[in-house]
Every structure is written in C-alpha cells, then in structure tokens.
Specification:
zinc; disordered N terminus; metalloendopeptidase activity; alpha/beta; metal-binding; Metalloendopeptidase; globular; 31% helix; MetalloPept_cat_dom_sf
Length: 438
C-alpha cells in the first residue's frame, strides 16, 4: 500500500526516536494511517464531480456484507451527527434556493420560470404541497464520481432500505428526466425538501456517511422536515434555551398545522428525522430534552416504524394502511383540519385580512395560539389572520414603529426572505428594519 505524504512524514519523524520506543512508533503509525484512510474511504474530491449511476455491483456488495452480518457502522450506538447542524443553513441541513452553499453552483438547477414556485413551496412541508411530491413515487438520481466504492455502497444501502420498506423508487436518471437528485460530497450534510425541480443536490460529505444520516437526508428529498418542528412538540420535549446561542433560536422554530400534516401519527421520539439532544448546543449541554425520561432522540440507525408509515402514507403505498401508533385524539384530528386562511401582506408590514374586528375566528385559538406559535416563521401568517385576539396582533395600518423583533432578522433578510412570498408575512411583521420597509 502506498503511503501518503502525511504518512511518510510521520514515519520519518518517528524514525528519529530510540529503538526502545519501537512499539509506540508502530502504534502511532497505524493510528495515523487509519485516520487518514477513514477520512478518505468514502470519497475523493481530487476527482472532478461528474454524474454517474449506481450499479448492480454496488448493491451486491451491500447484500454480501449483510450476509456476513457485518455492521454498517463501526459504533452504531455512538454516531456523531454534528455535521448535520450547520449554523448557516436552515435547520442545519436544509438547503434553500435563496442561499445555497457557496461552493455549489445552482444556476442550472432551477430555471427562472420555476424559481417562484420553488421558493414559494421550499419551506413548507411537502405533504401539504402536492407539487413537492415526486410523481408516481419515482425519484431519479445520479451519484457523484467522487465517491469511492465504499461511499457508493453506503448510498446503495440507504436506497435499498427505501426499496425494501416503501414504494418510493430511487431510479437511475434517464436521458429524459429533467427533475432529479444529484448526490455529491459537498460541504457536510444537506438537502432540499421534496421535488424542487431541475437538478437538485443532496450533499453527503464529511461526517455524513453513516446509514441513518444518508436515510435522513434522502428523506428530506422525499418530502419531510424535522420531527421536532411539529406544532405540538412542546408537549413532548423541552427546548433548553439557555444552552442555545440566541442568534440560533430560529433553528428550533415550529410549523403551523396548515403547513404540516401529521399523517395520523403522534410525536415520534425515535424518528430518524428528529434533532439529536445536542443540536446547536453552545456549551456541550443538551438543547432538547424528552419529557419521557426513558426515551432517546436523534437515532441515526435507520427508519423508525412511524417514519416508514409516513413515507408510505404520503405516497399512497399499498402497505400504508397500518399505523404503528394508536389513533390520535379527536382534538388533534380536529386541529389538523384547520382551514387555510386567505390573507395578504399590507404595505405597512402587518397582516391584512377580512377580520376587521379584533376577534378570534376559530374556537381553537386559545389553545393553539401562544407566544411561540404566534411569532413562528411558519405559523404567524395563519394564526395572526385567524387568531388576532389570542395573538394580540390587532395592528393598525398606520403603525409607525420600525424595529426588528428577532435577533436573526438581519441574517434571514440577507438571504432574501423579505422578498419571498412564503416568508413575507413573517418577515414584514417581525423584521421591518432589516427588510427596509420603514
């Protein structure tokens, strides 16, 4: 085996020690070699990125290893998923078309005509937006030439899990496929959510090649956000705000129920889509704590039973009739059916609607409207239009106040969210100064 320059230097340095330290030198050399190989066993960025397809040989290696009962990950109970929590990305690993990774040119990914549609639906849960679902549950894909045989095998194993347990078909891109996923080792782990259009990236880079993380990122592409973003999450977990950088609190926002469909399921602690307990920690202490002390969150081993049920339910798979959880309460079912309001953004930056009096339009408002949900990026438009009394949001159109209500306003405004339809209600209500509306 040829040694790298780094390994040769280590050998030369160690060789100057006395012979009695031979055993120590040998162990040090092995550690260095293994460290170097571990960092490069999945991909080689010195090779130009080109689109390739997985082959039968890639899937065959998966089958052979499984027959030997050889585990995918060397330490599956202690997987480091820190690469998923990039402070500069939405929720750590969700790519937005308005602020893509600097190293990844997306100029050919989404054409100009579809950009409005893409940006409008980008931050919504795909189950509420039919155009974000992949037609016939078929997802064309390509794989970067930078992946080694080990990397290709890991991706093949994740895709094989989808094929065995869902009706979603990850299919090698055909010549006539315009919309497809390109998997590449870019900067950490990230994905778009659902079918955005054109060539859309999924990055599985450094720290992202464990089977659970690969399944997680592909599940974003299938059409799912993170589990802890559910509106009801505070009934199941505590967010430990003191351990989170104040400028990153937006990474723990929640979704309005008119944008996310629970698909008949309760909160799933064991979901592969759940944040880990140390997500975005500023001090190494937990940021999310389950209210049920006996459960764990943030597993990266693979699908939970509820994950599989939701994927199959979303795409109307034949085996989607059995819910692994008990039925939701009638109150939860009622909240899921809340109507979507018709509202527009007024020129003053407040929410304008047909509700001219300061009254709540929904009986559920006192229960679902609180400080967090009324100011949430995803639920503010819905709740302030339908629950202005409970949200204390009966603004007049001649409001002359001009300030930012959120610490992260400047960051989101800089990424273009003031101009995106889906964010306008939130941004113009909470970030007037950063959006330049006054």
């Amino acid at each position: 085996m040829a040694l790298s320059t780094f390994q040769i230097i280590v050998v030369q340095l160690v060789s100057h020690q006395i012979d009695s330290n031979f055993f120590f030198k040998f162990i040090l050399l092995i550690i260095c070699i293994n460290f170097n190989e571990a960092n490069n066993q999945f991909f080689d960025k010195s090779i130009p990125d080109a689109e390739t397809l997985l082959t039968q040989a890639d899937f065959h290696r998966v089958t052979q290893r499984q027959k030997r009962q050889q585990p995918t990950d060397t330490n599956p109970n202690n997987i480091n998923d820190s690469a998923m929590y990039n402070k500069e990305r939405f929720e750590g690993d969700i790519l937005t078309a308005v602020n893509p990774a600097a190293s990844l040119p997306l100029k050919n990914t989404v054409n100009e005509d579809s950009a409005v549609k893409t940006q409008d639906g980008l931050q919504r849960n795909a189950v509420r937006q039919s155009y974000l679902k992949w037609p016939r549950a078929r997802i064309p894909y390509t794989v970067s030439s930078q992946y080694t045989s080990y990397g290709r095998e890991r991706i093949a194993e994740a895709i094989d899990e989808y094929h065995k347990k869902t009706c979603v078909e990850w299919t090698p891109k055909a010549a006539n496929d315009i919309d497809y996923v390109h998997i590449l080792p870019d900067d950490g782990c990230y994905s778009l959510v659902g079918k955005v259009g054109g060539k859309q990236p999924v990055s599985l880079g450094e720290g992202c090649m464990t089977i659970g993380i690969v399944i997680h990122e592909l599940m974003h592409s299938v059409g799912f956000f993170h589990e802890q973003s559910r509106t009801d999450r505070d009934d199941y977990v505590n967010i430990l705000w003191d351990n989170i950088d104040p400028t990153l609190r937006d990474q723990f926002d929640k979704y309005s129920q008119n944008m996310i469909d629970y698909l008949g399921t309760r909160y799933d602690y064991s979901s592969v889509m759940h944040y880990g307990p140390l997500a975005f920690s500023k001090n190494g202490k937990p940021t999310i704590e389950p209210k049920e002390k006996s459960v764990t969150i943030g597993q990266r081993l693979g699908f939970s039973p509820t994950d599989l049920y939701k994927v199959n339910k979303l795409y109307n798979c034949p085996n989607s009739n059995t819910n692994p959880q008990q039925q939701q309460t009638s109150q939860q079912q009622k909240q899921q059916q809340l109507p979507v309001p018709i509202s527009v953004v007024s020129t003053s930056g407040s929410i304008a609607s047909s509700n001219s009096k300061c009254i709540d339009l929904l009986n559920e408002c006192p229960y679902i409207a609180n400080k967090d949900t009324c100011n949430s990026m995803f639920s503010s438009s819905f709740l302030q239009a339908n629950c202005p009394k409970s949200c204390n949001s009966c603004h007049s159109n001649n409001n002359t106040d001009c300030n930012d209500n959120k610490d992260w306003c400047s960051r989101w405004a800089g990424s273009g969210m003031c101009d995106l339809y889906i964010f306008q209600s939130y941004m113009l209500s909470n970030c007037q100064m950063s959006c330049g509306v006054c």
